[in-house]
Design goal:
Blueprint (H helix, E strand, L loop, with lengths): L1 H5 L4 H39 L5
Length: about 55
């Protein structure tokens, strides 16, 4: 198991790259959900006031 975690001596490069990739993927999901929520609120607000699209 330690040989796998050592990654043939490249663990100092491999594991941080996995961490960066995972962080970017999680942030991408969070930002997309926030944007979707904000867009839905704006659309509902426009519909409620009878506004038009920009």
């Amino acid at each position: 198991m330690s040989a796998f975690l050592d990654m043939g001596g490249y663990a100092a490069y491999v594991w941080p790259s996995y961490a960066v990739t995972l962080t970017v993927m999680i942030l991408n999901i969070v930002w997309a959900r926030r944007l979707l929520q904000r867009s839905r609120k704006e659309a509902m607000h426009r519909l409620a006031i009878g506004g038009t699209a920009k």
